Inverse folding.
């Protein structure tokens, strides 16, 4: 569960996030949408403290991330993150990408980590790629490995920052399918995306960000058919 | 033309011994320079200002003065200041190690900073501690990119090692001079050790190429 209270973020003088408060419940899937530059990535990155909030409080599974006494590294282990550009470790094989953190950070034995990793690779349909290196994978395969790498840490929640935006169109679906399965398995997810179909079909709730403000949130059925604000209406008109 | 290589034949074992004498301190200096250079690079990218200043000042001094001067200072000044009679071997290691760590730290710093910063974020997001991230994820990637520059630095060090002959260290270069003085023939021994230096540098180049190929896991 994620709780955000009066979150502000400034870069120098520019205010990128303004007074955002929301709660993402356990098992909930939230899609964060909004125009480019509205602060979606920054919001997501504040949740695991890749960006340090200027003001406000964030709780992850009951632990306050914004409390200086909190062991951030420990909490981060419970938050999986998937990036637009994958960021696989290029010098490690697919299997090593999946086993590195569980072994070195959580102290799993090689056997345990590999069993778990192979299981995950099977889930994302990449069993035959375990010895491959990232450079030899397609974009869709890379992103599925990245998802599996995050899941290998057995996180309680997952953050996705435009996971399909860097992919060729024909590879979008294989990644979205993996995410759909994950959502159905009960994972708590916050997904920044431009895939409106995914948002509509998979998300329990839509958060609409505009110029750093959480302008509107609600069920997809409501948001897509009957947006409350004119900004959201304009945005939907442009994108749909 | 008055070339007679037969004159130096009796001295060949003496000269060849110089290969090991030269290699001995070059290898130690390279390792020293690499380890200390890596530490300096970490100081340079740290967020603690005094550490940045120290590493930058260090680099500035060792790159901004002649190597031969640094060698002389270490060899002559240490005994004068401390009474400790430093050997030519130790002086050579210190001077070359300290000097090349300045250059190597710059190479490594640039290499680390050239690694995609998404790699750091991916590591942080997984909860990987800084030390492990640097050692296992960032450093190996940086190393791959800077290998040619590093090899270049090692080659330079190997060639420049000849200046230790000025403090009486019996390296290849010095041996050529000794033979020259003994036989009243300078050209032949100089050509001979020149050839040896060239072979050593070619060897280094080949090793570099091989390592580079081995690291070519991607693209
Ligand atoms: N590290 C940074 N330094 C300065 N400005 C930034 C930084 N990251 C993002 N911004 C600015 O913050 C705003 C929101 O960015 P971002 O969160 O990436 O938006 P989105 O993901 O919705 O496109 C943009 O105007 C962007 O230029
Ligand atoms: Mg973004």
């Amino acid at each position: 569960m994620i709780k955000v209270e009066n979150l502000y973020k400034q870069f120098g003088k520019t205010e990128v996030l303004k007074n955002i408060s929301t709660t993402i419940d356990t098992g909930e899937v939230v899609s964060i949408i909004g125009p480019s530059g509205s602060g979606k990535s920054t919001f997501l990155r504040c949740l695991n403290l890749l960006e340090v909030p200027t003001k406000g409080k964030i709780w992850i599974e009951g632990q306050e991330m914004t409390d200086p006494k909190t062991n951030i590294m420990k909490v981060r282990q419970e938050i999986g993150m998937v990036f637009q550009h994958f960021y696989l470790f290029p010098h490690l094989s697919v299997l090593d990408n999946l086993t590195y953190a569980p072994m070195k950070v959580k102290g799993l034995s090689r056997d345990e980590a590999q069993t778990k990793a192979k299981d995950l690779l099977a889930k994302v349909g990449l069993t035959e790629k375990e010895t491959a290196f990232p450079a030899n994978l397609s974009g869709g395969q890379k992103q599925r490995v990245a998802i599996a790498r995050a899941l290998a840490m057995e996180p309680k929640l997952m953050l996705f920052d435009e996971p399909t935006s860097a992919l060729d169109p024909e590879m979008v679906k294989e990644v979205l399918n993996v995410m759909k399965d994950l959502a159905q398995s009960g994972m708590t997810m916050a997904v920044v995306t431009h895939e409106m179909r995914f948002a509509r079909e998979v998300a329990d709730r839509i958060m609409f960000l505009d110029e750093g403000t959480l302008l509107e949130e609600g069920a997809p059925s409501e948001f897509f058919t009957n947006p409350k604000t004119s900004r959201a209406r304009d945005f939907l008109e442009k994108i749909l | 033309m008055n070339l007679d290589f037969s004159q130096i034949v009796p001295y060949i074992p003496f000269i060849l011994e110089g290969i090991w004498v030269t290699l001995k301190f070059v290898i130690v200096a390279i390792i020293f320079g690499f380890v200390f250079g890596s530490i300096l690079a970490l100081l340079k990218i740290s967020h603690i200002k005094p550490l940045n200043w120290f590493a930058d000042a260090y680099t500035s001094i060792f790159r901004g003065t002649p190597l031969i001067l640094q060698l002389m200072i270490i060899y002559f000044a240490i005994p004068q200041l401390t009474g400790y009679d430093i050997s030519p071997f130790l002086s050579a290691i210190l001077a070359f190690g300290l000097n090349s760590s300045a250059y190597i730290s710059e190479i490594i710093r640039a290499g680390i900073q050239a690694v995609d910063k998404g790699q750091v974020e991916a590591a942080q997001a997984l909860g990987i501690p800084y030390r492990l991230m640097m050692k296992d994820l960032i450093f190996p990637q940086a190393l791959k990119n800077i290998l040619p520059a590093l090899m270049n630095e090692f080659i330079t060090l190997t060639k420049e090692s000849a200046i230790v002959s000025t403090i009486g260290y019996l390296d290849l270069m010095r041996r050529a001079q000794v033979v020259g003085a003994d036989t009243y023939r300078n050209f032949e021994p100089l050509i001979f050790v020149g050839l040896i230096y060239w072979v050593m540098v070619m060897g280094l180049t080949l090793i570099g190429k091989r390592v580079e190929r081995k690291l070519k896991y991607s693209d």
Remarks:
- The domain at 8-218 of chain B is CATH 1.10.3720.10 (MetI-like fold).
- The pocket of magnesium ion (ligand 2) is lined by residues A 40-41, 162 (CB under 6 Å).
- DSSP finds eight helices and no strands in chain B.
- Chain B has one domain: 8-218.
